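2024-03-11 09:14:02 INFO worker-7 job=invfold-0412 stage=load source=structure_tokens
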């Protein structure tokens, strides 16, 4: 077994500890050990490990003599993982898999079809646009139902069998007319060892145990005002050990807020300039410390996770209203930007797709673009990096592949469908989950090669799709309603050997036959 300790370079304080079993190439993390158990578990941790590694930067160094390590700092550590491999259960705890278990290409399917590789599929109540999350063998997903999105649902399924574990219903404190034009359970929840925390665009936040009992709930709309965005909100929360952090960007009031996981009370709230935005924040390691990074309609801003204090801002961007800043390494992350529906921000958006780097200089943080790429634009899928290259995919299903370090074009090719869900790279594969149900699997790297094209359903047998039935007010909106009523693949989670894919009203589990 391998004991890994991560130390913040500037303070020499223990940041985290992980216990893993390694096969020589991959480490397998599993389970969760509460930090309160550290004192009594410390000797057990050392006794079980034959390799000891300390990280003070971007790499690990081997410590041959455990006696030289200062064991007195063990009680202050944050434990990431501890368990035997046979007890492992995959974890996909939030939007885009932030904090997920390590994935193994060999365990995941390359190909599937409506008749092969679908382990199970289940109908969901109402409709939702969030992604599934997974913890310890359970899949959690949210949705809303009712003509005015009156009921908020959190549903749990057994990952292996697809059996319904439980369903929770909560009345919305901000009912509004359901429409294909407005978000419907768009924010993805977060889950940890203690429970699931679901935020809805109504402003309602519901905390449940992993067995479905309510812990607390509150309405941010009641506390701080109802949102005015005519298309609704969609930003997904992020989490730390003890916080759920939610970004609410609205044209009348905007703020970043931290809620206690234990009680739901406000730990801090930072007001922001009002704006229209649908992007989600991310937690990025910058200068050895985690920051909440918000890329949102003309600015990118970093905040202290503990206090909500604004640490830096970058305003040389535009059109960044939909994608999440995914990080390929410490202090760096991708910005995705595109012109609006009427072409607004087109000029600035062309200058805003690239790799933003934030350096700590003394007590200040200095953000700047390492490179930008004028050709690449995203749709709803966020830019991601894998195997030394980064991928953007636009609304016309064109994939832009660029070098992560330099931004130099690698290839530009079209795949079968545009993507709402963000691509996922695993081993030698990159999965692009098309919004109409076709997943294109590319070989990772610098040559464009399609390994598989996988349909989740056929046109003759589409999934259940509980779209709103209310009559739209104009001919234009009625025409668009028909176009937007087709099933859409919104989100994906990956755990153990399974892909869990979500349309508006259906959940699919795909694995090797």
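2024-03-11 09:14:09 INFO worker-7 stage=emit residues=513
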């Amino acid at each position: 077994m391998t004991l890994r300790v991560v130390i913040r370079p500037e303070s020499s304080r223990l940041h985290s500890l992980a216990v893993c079993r390694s096969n020589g190439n991959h480490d397998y993390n599993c389970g969760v050990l509460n930090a309160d158990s550290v004192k009594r578990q410390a000797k057990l941790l050392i006794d079980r490990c034959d390799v000891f590694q300390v990280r003070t930067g971007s790499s690990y160094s081997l410590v041959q003599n455990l006696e030289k390590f200062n064991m007195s700092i063990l009680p202050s550590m944050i434990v990431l993982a501890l368990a035997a491999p046979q007890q492992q259960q995959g974890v996909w705890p939030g939007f885009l898999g932030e904090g997920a278990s390590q994935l193994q290409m060999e365990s995941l399917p390359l190909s599937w079809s409506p008749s092969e590789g679908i382990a199970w599929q289940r109908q969901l109540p109402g409709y939702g646009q969030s992604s599934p999350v997974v913890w310890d063998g359970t899949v959690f997903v949210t949705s809303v139902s009712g003509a005015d999105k009156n009921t908020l649902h959190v549903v749990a399924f057994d990952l292996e069998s697809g059996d319904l574990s439980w369903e929770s219903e909560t009345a919305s404190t901000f009912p509004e007319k359901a429409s294909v034009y407005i978000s419907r359970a768009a924010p993805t929840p977060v889950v940890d060892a203690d429970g699931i925390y679901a935020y809805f665009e109504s402003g309602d936040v519901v905390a449940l145990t992993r067995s479905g009992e309510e812990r607390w709930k509150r309405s941010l709309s009641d506390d701080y005002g109802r949102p005015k965005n005519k298309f609704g909100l969609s930003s997904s929360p992020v989490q730390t050990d003890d916080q759920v952090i939610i970004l609410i960007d609205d044209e009348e009031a905007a703020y970043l807020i931290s809620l206690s996981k234990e009680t739901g009370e406000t730990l801090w709230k930072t007001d922001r300039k009002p704006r229209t935005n649908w992007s989600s924040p991310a937690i990025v390691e910058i200068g050895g410390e985690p920051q909440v990074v918000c890329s949102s309609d003309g600015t990118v801003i970093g905040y202290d996770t503990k206090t909500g204090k604004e640490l830096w801002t970058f305003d040389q961007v535009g059109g960044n209203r939909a994608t999440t800043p995914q990080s390929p390494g410490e202090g760096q992350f991708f910005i995705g930007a595109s012109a609006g529906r009427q072409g607004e921000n087109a000029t600035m958006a062309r200058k805003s797709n690239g790799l933003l780097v934030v350096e700590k200089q003394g007590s200040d943080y200095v953000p700047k673009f390492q490179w930008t790429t004028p050709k690449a634009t995203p749709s709803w899928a966020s830019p991601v990096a894998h195997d030394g290259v980064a991928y953007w995919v636009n609304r016309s299903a064109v994939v832009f592949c660029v070098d992560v370090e330099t931004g130099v074009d690698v290839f530009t090719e079209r795949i079968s469908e545009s993507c709402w869900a963000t691509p996922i790279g695993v081993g030698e594969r990159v999965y692009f989950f098309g919004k109409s149900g076709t997943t294109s699997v590319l070989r990772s790297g610098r040559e464009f090669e399609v390994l598989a094209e996988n349909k989740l359903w056929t046109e003759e047998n589409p999934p259940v799709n509980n779209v709103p039935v209310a009559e739209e007010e104009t001919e234009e909106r009625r025409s668009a309603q028909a176009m937007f009523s087709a099933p859409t693949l919104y989100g994906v989670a990956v755990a153990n050997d399974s892909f869990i894919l979500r349309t508006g009203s259906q959940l699919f589990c795909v694995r090797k036959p």
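2024-03-11 09:14:09 INFO worker-7 stage=report msg="Confidence is low (pLDDT under 50) at residues 1-88."
2024-03-11 09:14:10 INFO worker-7 job finished
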